[in-house]
C-alpha cells in the first residue's frame, strides 16, 4: 500500500503567504509555488458508504471576497473572528455564480499573463468560514477533513490551527484533524484563491469557476479502519472464471455472499462469475471488514487488454459509442447535484451512448459509482491541460519542466488512488492538450506501476510514447479510413512508427456538436464498423455550458463567453454539446442514438427484414421486436416479430407477415422496432433501442387530369386570377389563395449560418458562411423580367442576385391550376461562375400568424439536414410551429423537416394551407425570418412577428463539423447547378 511519502506528509504547520516556500531562489507564496500541497494525507480509494461515521459540512457558509491574494491578514481563521458583516454562500458552489464577481470563459488562452508560475495581483480570493457542532455520539479520535473539489487553491484552518493547503481543483484532498475537533462550535476557515500555479495546469476549454464546488466532509477514522483498499477483479473469458483479490491496509476479510467467498485481504480466489461489461454491468455485492470498519463493495469482474492491435475487454474488441462529458449545470456550474449526474447517465443510456471520456478531469466520484451500476465504459482523464502554452510554441510548458513534475504526479496519484476500484474505468488518460514532455512520461510510468490493469490514453503526443492506444481528435473521414487500414502517414522515427501502427485507434474527440450538427456521424460509424482497428470515439461534447442569465426584462437565457464582460473570451465555443444546457436533448443526440444503435434493422430478402446484432457482448434476448405496417402514417396492422437471440456480431433474415390489405395509392412501409423486453435500471420496458423502415409500396399519384386547367384571367385591382390563386400582375407574386392573403412564394437561398457554416477561426478559409456573405446571399434582390399569361399557365421569369455581384440565379415560376389546387414548377438556372455551394434552394412564403400547428407526412419528428438525417423516420407528425424550432444557445438555422410528402399548416379550427411535393421537399416554419434568426445572439433576441415564415426547399447544404472538425463531405454539398422542383398548394378547411 502506498505510504505517506515526503511529498505527501508535509509539514505540520504549513508555509503561508507571509512565510513563503523557501529553497527556490525567489521564494514564492504557496499559491504560486508549483508544488502541489502541504499537510495533506496520501490519497486513497473513495467509497460512498461504510459504518464509520461521516458528516457533511455543506450548507450556508460565511463568505468574503477580496480582489487580491496578497492580503496577508489571516485573522479571519480565528474561531472568535466576527464575520457578521460577511455574506452567506452556499457550499458546495462557485462564488462567481452566487453574485460575487463573474465567470470567465476562454478556450485555450489563459485569462492571465503566461508568466508561470506567477499570477496577477488581481487574484480574487474568497475567505470562507463555517461553524459546526459534532453530531451526538461522535467519538473522539482520528478524523479526516475531506475536500472533493476546490478551484483552484485552498488554505485551510480548523479552530484557528492551520492544517495545510492544496491545489488540484477536481481532485480530493484530506487533512488529519481529529486532534483539533471539539464537540461544540468548531470553526473551519478556508481561503480560496481563484488563480494559482495550479491554474497553469487547468487550462481546459470551459468556464473558470472558482470556489469550494464539491462536498466538504468530516470522516471519523476509528482505530483499524480502512486506510486504503484496492479491488482486483479480473475475468478470464476462456474459462469463465473471475479472480478476486482485495488489498487492504490494514488487513481484514472480504466476503462475497453470492459467490460463497470469504477471503483474507491479499488472498485471491478464482470462481465462476458473470463478467462486468458496459452492456451487462453485473456487480456482486461484497463487504470488506477490517478491525475498525465495514465497507460495502460492489465488485465487477473484467479484464482490459491491448492485444493483437486491438483494445479488448474480456477477450473481445469493444466499440466506443462515446461522449466527452464535462460536469455542468446551467445554474450551479460544476457544483453538480446527484440528480444531474443520474440524469446525464440515464439520457446517455437511453441514447445508446456506451462510453464516457471524463473530459478533462476526474468527475465527482459518485458519477463513477453510477457508471459501474448502469454500465458505461469510462476513460478517466486526469485534471491536466496546459493548452495555452501552445500559443508560445510550448515554451515553458509545465509538463516538460521538472519543477512541475511533483504536481503532475500528485494529480495522477489522486485520480488513480481515488478511482482505482471502479470496473467502469477501463483506461486512464494523462490529461488533455498538454503537448509533450517528461512530466507526462513520469505520470505514465507511475500509473503503469501502480495499476498495470488499465491501458493508458493521451492524445497530445503523436508518437504515442506513453500510451497504449493511438488517439486523435477531429481527424476527417478519409484519414480515419487510412488509419483503419494501418496506412497512416508514418512517424519520422521508424521504431515509434512501427509501434504506433500496431496500436488500436480511437477518436477521443470527433463530431463537434456545436449548434446545429454534427454532420457526418453515419460516415464515421461506417468506418468504425469497417475497420476493426477503429474502435469508435467520443463526440465532443455532451452538454452545452450555457449559464442561465436574465435580460433586464427578466427573461432567462443561456449565456456564453462575453456575456459577463470578460476582457478575453471565446464566445459560444463553450456551447457544443449534444444536450442543451438544461439537458434537453438536441437533434444531434437523436441522430447519434440512431447512428450508433446496437441493432441494425434493414431491408433483407423479399418479404423479410435483416436484423444485425451490433452489441459487443449482449445477445438480443433483452429485446422484444415489433413490426407495424403503415400507409401514409396510418398503422394498418402491427404485431410482435420473433427474432432469434442472435449472438453479438450475428445477423439473420426474419420473415415479415403477409402485407395487410389497404387503400391503394398510398405509400406504405414497414417499421420494425427493437424495444427493451423488461425494465432496466436506466429505462422501462418498451423503451426503443433501435428501429428501421423498409419500403412496402410506393405512392401511386392520382391520374393527371385529362383536360387542361383553367386559363389565367385579369381580375380587379391589378390581379391575375388562376384557379384558387390571385397574383400581382406586376410582380407575378401570389397574393391570395382561396381569398386568404399570403406573401410569396419567392426563391430563397439564405439560411442563418450555423456554427459549422461559420467554421472555427483556425480552419482554412474561406469558410462557407464567409463565402456566402461575400457573394451576398444574405441580401439577394429579385428582378421580375416578365409575367406571361399562357393558355393554362402563368409564367413569371425573374433574376435573383445581390448588389455588387455579377452572379445570379434565373428563377422561373410556372403556375397552373387543377380544381382547387395551384401547381408551381420552379426552374432555377445559375448564371456566372459560382465559387461556393448554396445554403439552401427553395421558396419562402409569409403566412398568417394564426397558422400555429404543422401536420406533415414525411421525415420526423425532429429536424434533419442532408448529413444529419439518420434519425428522421417517415411518418405522420404534428406539432405546434414553435415546437419545430430548436433553441440553439446561439440562434442559427434549425428546424428543417426532411422528405416531406405533404405539410398542412393549420389554425386552431383546422383551416389552413396544404403543400404537396412531387414527390418530396423540405419544410421549415418559424415565426421569424432567417434574417432575424441570423441577427440574434441569444434566444431572447427572437420575438415572434405576425407571420409564419414557411420555407419549402428543394435542397439544403449539409452541416458538417467545421466548427472544430471536417466540413461537409462532398456528397452533401449543395452545389450550384440547374434545378427544377414542383410544389402543389391548396387551402384546407
Ligand atoms: C479540443 C479540446 O480538447 C476540447 O477541450 C475542446 O476545446 C474542443 O477542442 C473544441 O470544443 S482542442 C481543438 C483545438 C482541436
Automatic annotation (TrEMBL):
GO molecular function terms listed in the Swiss-Prot or TrEMBL record: beta-galactosidase activity
Start-end of Basic and acidic residues biased regions: 1-19
Enzyme Commission code: 3.2.1.23
Record flagged with keyword Hydrolase: yes
InterPro entries cross-referenced by the UniProt entry: B-gal_small/dom_5, Bact_Beta-galactosidase, Beta-gal/glucu_dom_sf, Gal_mutarotase_sf_dom, Galactose-bd-like_sf, GH, GH-type_carb-bd, Glyco_hydro_2
Broadest EC class assigned to this enzyme: hydrolase
Domain (Beta galactosidase small chain/) ranges: 720-986
Cross-referenced SMART domains: Bgal_small_N (SM01038)
Pfam families: Bgal_small_N, Glyco_hydro_2_C, Glyco_hydro_2_N, LacZ_4
Keyword hit for Transcription regulation: no
Catalyzed chemical reaction(s): Hydrolysis of terminal non-reducing beta-D-galactose residues in beta-D-galactosides
Keywords, ordered alphabetically: Glycosidase, Hydrolase
Region listing for Disordered, in residue ranges: 1-43, 695-714
Family as reported in the entry's similarity comment: Belongs to the glycosyl hydrolase 2 family.
Entry protein name: Beta-galactosidase
The species this protein was found in: Streptomyces rimosus subsp. rimosus
Amino acid at each position: 500500500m502506498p505510504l505517506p511519502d515526503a511529498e505527501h506528509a508535509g509539514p505540520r504547520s504549513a508555509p503561508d503567504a507571509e512565510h513563503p516556500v523557501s529553497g527556490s531562489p525567489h521564494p514564492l507564496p504557496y499559491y504560486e509555488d508549483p508544488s502541489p500541497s502541504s499537510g495533506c494525507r496520501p490519497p486513497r480509494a473513495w467509497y460512498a458508504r461504510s459504518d464509520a461515521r461521516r458528516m457533511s459540512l455543506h450548507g450556508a457558509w460565511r463568505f468574503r471576497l477580496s480582489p487580491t491574494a496578497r492580503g496577508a491578514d489571516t485573522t479571519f481563521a480565528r474561531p472568535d473572528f466576527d464575520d457578521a458583516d460577511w455574506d452567506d454562500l452556499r457550499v458546495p458552489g462557485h462564488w462567481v455564480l452566487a453574485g460575487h464577481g463573474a465567470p470567465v470563459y476562454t478556450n485555450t488562452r489563459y485569462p492571465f499573463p503566461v508568466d508561470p508560475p506567477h499570477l496577477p495581483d488581481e487574484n480574487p480570493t474568497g475567505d470562507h468560514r463555517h461553524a459546526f457542532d459534532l453530531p451526538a455520539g461522535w467519538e473522539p479520535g482520528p478524523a479526516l477533513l475531506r475536500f472533493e473539489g476546490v478551484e483552484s487553491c485552498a488554505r485551510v484552518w480548523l479552530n484557528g490551527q492551520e492544517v495545510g493547503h492544496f491545489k488540484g481543483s477536481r481532485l480530493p484532498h484530506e487533512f488529519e484533524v481529529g486532534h483539533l475537533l471539539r464537540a461544540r462550535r468548531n470553526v473551519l476557515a478556508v481561503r480560496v484563491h481563484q488563480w494559482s500555479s495550479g491554474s497553469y495546469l487547468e487550462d481546459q476549454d470551459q468556464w473558470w469557476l472558482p470556489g469550494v464546488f464539491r462536498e466538504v466532509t468530516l470522516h471519523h477514522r476509528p482505530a483499524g479502519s480502512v486506510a486504503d483498499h484496492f479491488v482486483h477483479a479480473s475475468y478470464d473469458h476462456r474459462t469463465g472464471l473471475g479472480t478476486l483479490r482485495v488489498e487492504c491496509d490494514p488487513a481484514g476479510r472480504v466476503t462475497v455472499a453470492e459467490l460463497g467467498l470469504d477471503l483474507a485481504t491479499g488472498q485471491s480466489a478464482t470462481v465462476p462469475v458473470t463478467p462486468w461489461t458496459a452492456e451487462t454491468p453485473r456487480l456482486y455485492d461484497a463487504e470488506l471488514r477490517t478491525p475498525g470498519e465495514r465497507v460495502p463493495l460492489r465488485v465487477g469482474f473484467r479484464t482490459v487488454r491491448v492485444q493483437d492491435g486491438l483494445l479488448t475487454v474480456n477477450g473481445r474488441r469493444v466499440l466506443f459509442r462515446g461522449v466527452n462529458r464535462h460536469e455542468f449545470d446551467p445554474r450551479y456550474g460544476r457544483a453538480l447535484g446527484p440528480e444531474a449526474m443520474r440524469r446525464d447517465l440515464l439520457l446517455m443510456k437511453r441514447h445508446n451512448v456506451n462510453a464516457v471520456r471524463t473530459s478533462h478531469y476526474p468527475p465527482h466520484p459518485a458519477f463513477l459509482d453510477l457508471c459501474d451500476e448502469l454500465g458505461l465504459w469510462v476513460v478517466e482523464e486526469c485534471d491536466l491541460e496546459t493548452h495555452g502554452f501552445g500559443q508560445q510554441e510550448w515554451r515553458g510548458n509545465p509538463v516538460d519542466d521538472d519543477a512541475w513534475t511533483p504536481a503532475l504526479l500528485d494529480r495522477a496519484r489522486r485520480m488513480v488512488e481515488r478511482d482505482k476500484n471502479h470496473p467502469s474505468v477501463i483506461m486512464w488518460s494523462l490529461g488533455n492538450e498538454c503537448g509533450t514532455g517528461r512530466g507526462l512520461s513520469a505520470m505514465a510510468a507511475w500509473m503503469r506501476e501502480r495499476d498495470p490493469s488499465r491501458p493508458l490514453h493521451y492524445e497530445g503526443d503523436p508518437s504515442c510514447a506513453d500510451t497504449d492506444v493511438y488517439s486523435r481528435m477531429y481527424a476527417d473521414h478519409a484519414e480515419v479510413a487510412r488509419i483503419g487500414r494501418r496506412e497512416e502517414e508514418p512517424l519520422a522515427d521508424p521504431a515509434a512508427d512501427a509501434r504506433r501502427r500496431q496500436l488500436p485507434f480511437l477518436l477521443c474527440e470527433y463530431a463537434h456538436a456545436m449548434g446545429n450538427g454534427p454532420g457526418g456521424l453515419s460516415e464515421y460509424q461506417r468506418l468504425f464498423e469497417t475497420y476493426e482497428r477503429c474502435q469508435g470515439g467520443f463526440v465532443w461534447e455532451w452538454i452545452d455550458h450555457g449559464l442561465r442569465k436574465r435580460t433586464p426584462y427578466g427573461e432567462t437565457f443561456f449565456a456564453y463567453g462575453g456575456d459577463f464582460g470578460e476582457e478575453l473570451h471565446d464566445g459560444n465555443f463553450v456551447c457544443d454539446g449534444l444536450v442543451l444546457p438544461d439537458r434537453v436533448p438536441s437533434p444531434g443526440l437523436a441522430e447519434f442514438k440512431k447512428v450508433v444503435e446496437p441493432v441494425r434493422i434493414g431491408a433483407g430478402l423479399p418479404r423479410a427484414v435483416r436484423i444485425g446484432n451490433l452489441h459487443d457482448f449482449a445477445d438480443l434476448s433483452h429485446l422484444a421486436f415489433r413490426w407495424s405496417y403503415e400507409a401514409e402514417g396510418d398503422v394498418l396492422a402491427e404485431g410482435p416479430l420473433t427474432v432469434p437471440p442472435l449472438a453479438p456480431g450475428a445477423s439473420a433474415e426474419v420473415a415479415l407477415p403477409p402485407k395487410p390489405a389497404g387503400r391503394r395509392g398510398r405509400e406504405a412501409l414497414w417499421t420494425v422496432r427493437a424495444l427493451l423486453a423488461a425494465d432496466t435500471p436506466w429505462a422501462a420496458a418498451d423503451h426503443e433501442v433501435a428501429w428501421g423502415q423498409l419500403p412496402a409500396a410506393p405512392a401511386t399519384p392520382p391520374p393527371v387530369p385529362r383536360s387542361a386547367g383553367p386559363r389565367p384571367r385579369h381580375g380587379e385591382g391589378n390581379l391575375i386570377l388562376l384557379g384558387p390563386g390571385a397574383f400581382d400582375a406586376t410582380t407575378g407574386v401570389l397574393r391570395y389563395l382561396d381569398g386568404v392573403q399570403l406573401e410569396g412564394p419567392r426563391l430563397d437561398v439564405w439560411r442563418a449560418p450555423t456554427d459549422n457554416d461559420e467554421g472555427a477561426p483556425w480552419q482554412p478559409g474561406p469558410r462557407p458562411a464567409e463565402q456566402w456573405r461575400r457573394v451576398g446571399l444574405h441580401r439577394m434582390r429579385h428582378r421580375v423580367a416578365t409575367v406571361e399569361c399562357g393558355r393554362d399557365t402563368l409564367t413569371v421569369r425573374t433574376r435573383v442576385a445581390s448588389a455588387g455581384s455579377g452572379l445570379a440565379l434565373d428563377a422561373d415560376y410556372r403556375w397552373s391550376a387543377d380544381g382547387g389546387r395551384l401547381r408551381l414548377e420552379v426552374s432555377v438556372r445559375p448564371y456566372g461562375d459560382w465559387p461556393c455551394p448554396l445554403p439552401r434552394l427553395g421558396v419562402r412564403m409569409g403566412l398568417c400568424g394564426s397558422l400555429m400547428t404543422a401536420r406533415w407526412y414525411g421525415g420526423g419528428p425532429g429536424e434533419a439536414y442532408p448529413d444529419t438525417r439518420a434519425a428522421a423516420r417517415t411518418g405522420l407528425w404534428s406539432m405546434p410551429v414553435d415546437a419545430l424550432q430548436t433553441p440553439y444557445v446561439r440562434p442559427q438555422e434549425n428546424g428543417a423537416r426532411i422528405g416531406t410528402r405533404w405539410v398542412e399548416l393549420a389554425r386552431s379550427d383546422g383551416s389552413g394551407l396544404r403543400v404537396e411535393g412531387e414527390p418530396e421537399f423540405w419544410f421549415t416554419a418559424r415565426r421569424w425570418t432567417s434574417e432575424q434568426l441570423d441577427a440574434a445572439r441569444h434566444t431572447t433576441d427572437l420575438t415572434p412577428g405576425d407571420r409564419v415564415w414557411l420555407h419549402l426547399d428543394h435542397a439544403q447544404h449539409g452541416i458538417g463539423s467545421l466548427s472544430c472538425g471536417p466540413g461537409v463531405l462532398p456528397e452533401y454539398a449543395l452545389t450550384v447547378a440547374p434545378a427544377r422542383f414542383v410544389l402543389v398548394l391548396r387551402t384546407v378547411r
